[in-house]
Amino acid sequence: MERKRSDQKTRAPSGAAVQSVELTEALYRALFAEWAEHGFSALSLERVAARAGAGKAAIYRRWPGKLQFADEAINTIALRMAAFEDKGSLEADVRAFHRRLRSVFRHPLVRRILPDIYAEVARSEAMEAISERVAQTRRDEAAKVIERAIARGELPGALDREIALDFLPCSIYWRMMVTRRSLPDAQLDLYAQGTTAAIKALASAP
Predict the structure, then answer these.
(1) Which of 52, 62, 60, 54 is nearest to 31 (CA)?
(2) CB 138: neighbour CB atoms within 10 A?
(3) What is this structure's pTM?
(4) Which stretches make up the HTH tetR-type domain (predicted)?
(5) Of 103, 148, 183, 192, whose CB neighbour count within 10 A is largest?
(6) CA gap 168, 119 in Å, rounded
(7) pLDDT tens-digit series, residues 96-109
């Protein structure tokens, strides 16, 4: 006798139908490790899957290709690295922003992958779009530093926000990623003081 549909239990998906959060995170880590070792152009999804302890199908169940995989991985990590809470003053917020940026630039994978991204940007419009989205994520977070200072009355509402946002990361990026020098705490404080002074000077410029 045929069972009525209402008598049949709904079965939970299993096996390939379930996308494990832990496996997704492992795939992200494997992607970045392979990227740092081989560069994006030579990156192999087979090696990424093997490093994560999975089959290549685990990647294609999540992303249609290498670019989409990289896009989601980069933006997921960028969002985690971007946020920090209100520290109460412009200089304190700038110092917290610089400290977070220093932590990112100290990471050995970031130090190898970031220059490769810029090299790929010169060759690939798709990678350029990925890079721009990551940059905008960080810029949106930096904008909170400026907007909080305006709300506190530390900066005028007429401030040129775009130039102020350029000031925030540039000195840290130059020192750590371009000249490849370390940045100890004492000097980090000086960079925060200098950047704060520059933004305030911009606010008073004619």
Answers:
(1) 52
(2) 20
(3) 0.80
(4) 21-81
(5) 192
(6) 24
(7) 999 999 998 999 99
